[in-house]
């Protein structure tokens, strides 16, 4: 995905004529956005026995939706190029998954909050399509694992990085500095792994044994509607 983004960015820059940098005027754009996302992942939960042999393995793939707000700040360089940073203060939360039904140590209920989803990106306007733009960048997020474990153990929180690519349309409202933006993007995160803190050789019925979760194919489609204000606009 990262190689695709690099190639995509170089291709778009190549389509922007050299006069894109003729204007030495810088601008700053701030915005608040409402987002709706559809996310999916594949996760494998492995339960180990007290002799560190693989016990029950549960593999699931799922899709969920969530809405969240975000804020962003962009530095415009010339007429077409902008460097941006977007912060998502809201959590993106998965549904709760239940495992170990009927286990002597009790059931496990787990959900995940994706906190501090931050994006650094390059945004490029398309001279041949007024108001249209493309963007590509990198993302990072912290995974806060919320669990109710029958054994009392808990999963370790982890962090991951990824990449994003998108396309959108922006328009100023009349002659004002305010604008409206509509955007769609594709997000992909690196695979993650976590466990419940029980040692591989210390699993017992009392502590529920060692559980390990490996998640991959963490991806999502996001739709955004934003209100912006730009300083430095002609």
Description of the molecule:
The protein is mainly beta and 234 residues long. The protein has a single domain, classed as Porin. It is built from 1 helix and 11 strands. The protein has one helix at 2-15, and strands at residues 26-48, 54-77, 81-88, 92-93, 97-99, 108-125, 132-149, 158-172, 178-189, 192-195, 211-231. Strands 1-2-3-6-7-8-9-11 form an 8-stranded antiparallel β-barrel. It is elongated and about 70 Å long.
Helices and strands, in order, run as HEEEEEEEEEEE
What CATH architecture would you give?
Beta Barrel
Quickly count the helices.
1
| Helix content range | under 10%
Structural class: mainly beta
**Distance, first to last CA:** 37 Å
CATH class, anyone? Answer: Mainly Beta
Query: Cα-atom Rg, whole angstroms?
Result: 22 Å
Mean of residue pLDDT values? 81
Strand order across the largest sheet? 1-2-3-6-7-8-9-11
The total number of structural domains is 1
CATH names the topology as: Porin
Residue runs with pLDDT of under 50 for 5 or more positions: 15-23
Number of strands: 11
Overall spatial form: elongated
Strand content: over 45%
- Largest sheet at a glance? 8 strands, antiparallel, barrel
């Amino acid at each position: 995905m990262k190689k695709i983004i690099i190639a995509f960015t170089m291709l778009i820059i190549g389509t922007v004529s050299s006069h894109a940098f003729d204007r030495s005027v810088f601008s700053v754009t701030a915005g608040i956005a409402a987002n709706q996302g559809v996310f999916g992942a594949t996760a494998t939960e492995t339960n180990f026995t007290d002799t560190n042999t693989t016990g029950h393995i549960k593999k699931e793939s799922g899709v969920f939706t969530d809405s969240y707000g975000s804020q962003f700040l962009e530095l415009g360089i010339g007429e077409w190029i902008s460097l941006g940073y977007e912060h998502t203060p809201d959590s993106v939360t998965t549904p709760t998954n239940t495992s170990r039904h009927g286990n002597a140590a009790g059931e496990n209920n787990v959900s995940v909050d994706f906190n501090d989803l931050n994006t650094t990106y390059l945004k490029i306007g398309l001279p041949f399509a007024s108001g249209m733009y493309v963007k590509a960048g990198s993302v990072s997020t912290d995974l806060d694992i919320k669990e109710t474990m029958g054994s009392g153990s808990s999963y370790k929180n982890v962090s991951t990085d990824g990449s994003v690519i998108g396309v959108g349309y922006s328009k100023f409202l009349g002659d004002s500095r305010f604008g409206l933006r509509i955007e769609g993007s594709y997000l992909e995160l690196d695979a993650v792994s976590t466990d419940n803190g029980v040692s591989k050789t210390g699993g017992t019925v009392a502590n529920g044994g060692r559980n390990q979760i490996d998640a991959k194919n963490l991806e999502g489609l996001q739709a955004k509607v934003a209100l912006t204000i730009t300083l430095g606009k002609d």
